[in-house]
Design goal:
Layout: H1 3-8, H2 11-22, H3 25-41, H4 52-66, H5 81-93, H6 96-106, H7 111-118, H8 122-138, E1 143-147, H9 151-163, E2 167-172, H10 175-183, E3 189-193, H11 202-212, E4 217-221, E5 238-240, H12 245-255
Parallel strand pairs: 1-2, 1-3, 3-4, 4-5
Helix pairs in contact: 2-3, 3-4, 4-7, 6-7, 6-8, 6-12, 7-8, 10-11
Length: 264
């Protein structure tokens, strides 16, 4: 199997991570594209371990870090405008601890794998992860509208949302119910399944909700790779079924940091 074939299967999930990190489909996909260009230019420098996925995220992390160095080796003026805009926003709000939280909670890496990706050691990862979780627990709370047609999953999401200290504005199972529920509540965040009970689309529901008010939206699907091709307007924040509490926690916290948008 060629290197390109090995990497291809991991790209949808790297796009998910990049978009969650930047809060934007455009910015996230630009970082992924730059990462691939660097790998193609110097494939001999790509391999550091037997796990292609770890090496791919490690390469992405190096690109990410290089866009934000402040030691005189580079400056914002030399950066691409897209990277400069991301730099201005993310220098203040995306510390290493939050990246480690996304790597472990959203992407499912272990602490030692996150250490290999970020070039740190396991004690540092564990310390930064604990601090990041503590920071999230101290963040302002919001009211969450859940759009999910499977009762057990809706109940699980409701429990997680409440355990994280947020309120549940309501639970809707169809496009029309979701829009109506949003209009009669003050939801500050929406968790939406992609495919709803009546065959309607959660993405369409979110688009109609965003026409009413700008709120962060997180999409939930069993097939994230189908929505992370980079070929069209796609969700910025996406979690996979089955999900864990820390995965939902990380997605909620990250989405609340950015200007609400379906995609840039």
């Amino acid at each position: 199997m060629s290197l390109g074939e090995e990497i291809r299967g991991h790209l949808p999930f790297l796009r998910r991570y990049a978009r969650a990190l930047t809060g934007s489909q455009q910015h996230g996909d630009n970082f992924v594209h730059t990462t691939l260009e660097v790998i193609v230019a110097a494939p001999q420098e790509f391999r550091t371990c037997p796990d292609t996925r770890i090496d791919l995220y490690r390469s992405f992390h190096r690109i990410w870090e290089s866009a934000y160095i402040d030691d005189g080796e580079g400056s914002d003026a030399e950066l691409d405008p897209v990277l400069r805009a991301a730099n201005d926003r993310l220098r203040r709000i995306t510390p290493l601890g939050r990246q480690i939280l996304l790597l472990t909670a959203l992407e499912g890496f272990s602490a030692d794998e996150a250490a290999a990706i970020t070039g740190t050691d396991i004690p540092t990862v564990e310390t930064l992860l604990a601090e990041a979780v503590g920071d999230l627990d101290r963040e302002s709370r919001t009211s969450v509208l859940i759009i999910e047609d499977e009762p057990l999953i809706a109940m699980e999401l409701e429990q997680i949302v409440r355990e994280l200290g947020h309120e549940v504005a309501g639970i809707a199972t169809t496009h029309d119910d979701a829009v109506a529920a949003f209009e009669r509540t003050e939801a500050g965040l929406v968790l939406a399944d992609i495919q709803l009970a009546d065959g309607s689309s959660g993405i369409d529901a979110i688009q109609d909700i965003l026409a009413i008010a700008p709120v962060p939206a997180i999409f939930i699907t069993a097939f994230p790779e189908r929505l992370l091709t980079g070929n069209r307007v796609e969700p910025t924040f996406l979690i996979s079924k089955p999900f864990r509490q820390n995965m939902v926690r990380a997605a909620i916290s990250q989405s609340l940091l950015f200007t609400p948008q379906l995609a840039a």
